[in-house]
Write a structure and sequence with these properties.
By secondary structure, the chain is an alpha/beta fold. The chain folds into 3 domains: 132 residues, Rossmann fold; 98 residues, no CATH class; 85 residues, Alpha-Beta Plaits (2-Layer Sandwich). Helices cover 44% and strands 11% of the residues. The N and C termini lie far apart (53 Å). 38% of the residues are buried. Bound molecules: iron/sulfur cluster (SF4).
């Protein structure tokens, strides 16, 4: 009975946290035991986003491990790492304060792959002597990863924007928007409530369910024109007057802007739109590459491959790069960088120091949030 109640609560929390995903959902930080871990058990580290932690614990059912939950402001790993809330400093702090060093004999931590854009593995090693390995993109693959002596297949390293994730993101944007609109229109313009909600969900579906990526050219503009035409067409078809037409146009444009707004990239599989695609590209200095192959482990897009007959990498699919900078942050030889095609480079040191990437908000923090001494 107790297990059933717990599962029900878990399900309700899943729904609530998916619908209101844009809000932070912090869970308690610190050390947790998964199963019956001992001094040689693996140590997993993640951010304190409640949905992530509960999914991870579900995926690890039947396994023995230590879980260190580090502060990420209650935000998911990808967004927190890209936005400067989950970096070296948070991981180091969690390791030093959680008591994990008294529980295990080894000094190896497994972090989510998508943390690689924010946590500098070399700095964690330098500051606390822990070696960081990056696990698979998805928590569900952790048991396989652990069973394979912490080796992830290329498949496990790729981020996908699966149908389930697309539905989650669609709901995360459309549900709270609908809630606000339902209150406003329910109170002041009930006759327009259904058409407005229909437009909201149709736009959210267009953005997240396999349509948006296929729109050629300026996507937001195309979407805005279609929404505008649909909203105005509806007003004209029911014979409403000019004020209604103007209101519908404003509403259609506002909803398009809101629902197609990239918030630190909706998925590691999707580059954000508000940077010019051609502005910065990933660059590789092959002479510097000594074949550490960490970029192969952290890239969520399969951009790299091993160069034939050489212990080096090469850029196999640079067009798939979402410019998260994870590979640049982790490369021990500084062989990777961002460049604009006109000879201007953003060097690795600047990217690490200021947590630069092209995913969303810039986190210029000259303090020690990423392990650099202030
Ligand atoms: S190649 Fe691009 S997508 Fe892959 S890790 Fe580097 S910056 Fe991120």
């Amino acid at each position: 009975m107790r297990a059933l109640v717990r599962r029900l609560i878990d399900l309700l929390l899943d729904i609530l946290q998916t619908v209101f995903r844009m809000l932070p959902w912090p869970t308690r930080t610190g050390l947790r035991a998964v199963g019956h871990p001992g001094p040689t058990s693996p140590v997993l580290v993640t951010g304190n986003y409640d949905l992530t932690v509960r999914r991870l614990l579900r995926a690890m059912r039947g396994q023995d491990a230590w879980l260190v939950v580090a502060p990420s402001q209650g935000v998911n790993v990808w967004c927190a790492a890209a936005g400067g809330h989950f970096g070296t400093h948070q991981v180091v702090t969690a390791i030093k304060t959680s008591g994990i060093e008294q529980r295990v004999q080894h000094r190896r931590a497994i972090l989510p792959q998508l943390a690689a854009t924010g946590v500098v593995a070399q700095d964690v090693a330098r500051r606390v002597g822990w070696r960081v390995a990056f696990g698979p993109v998805y928590a569900k693959d952790l048991p396989t990863f652990l069973a394979a002596e912490q080796q992830a297949s290329a498949e496990m390293r790729r981020a996908r924007f699966t149908l389930r994730e697309r539905f989650e993101m669609m709901t995360a944007w459309a549900a709270p928007t609908s809630f606000v609109l339902a209150v406003v229109f329910g109170l002041f313009a009930r006759a327009w409530l259904i058409p407005v909600l229909a437009l909201t969900w149709l736009l959210a579906a267009a953005v997240y369910l396999f349509v948006y990526e296929r729109i050629p050219g300026p996507r937001k503009l195309v979407l805005a024109v279609v929404a505008l035409a649909a909203a105005c067409g509806y007003v004209v078809s029911i014979g409403a007057g000019t004020p209604a037409l103007v209101g519908a146009a404003v509403m259609a444009l506002g909803l398009t802007w809101l629902l197609s707004f990239d918030f630190t990239g909706s998925s590691p599989d999707r580059a954000v739109d508000h940077f010019d695609e051609s502005a910065f590209q990933i660059g590789l200095d092959q002479d510097r590459c000594t074949g550490a192959f960490i970029c192969l482990q952290v890239c969520p897009e399969g951009v790299f491959q091993r160069a034939e007959h050489q212990k080096k990498v090469e850029l196999a699919h640079p067009d798939q790069c979402v410019r998260c900078a994870a590979c640049i942050v982790q490369c021990p030889k500084d062989a990777l960088y961002l460049h604009d095609g006109h000879g201007r480079r953003v060097e690795p040191d600047a990217i690490r120091r200021f947590n630069l990437n092209l995913l969303g908000r810039r986190a210029i923090d000259a303090g020690d949030s990423n392990g650099h001494d202030a």
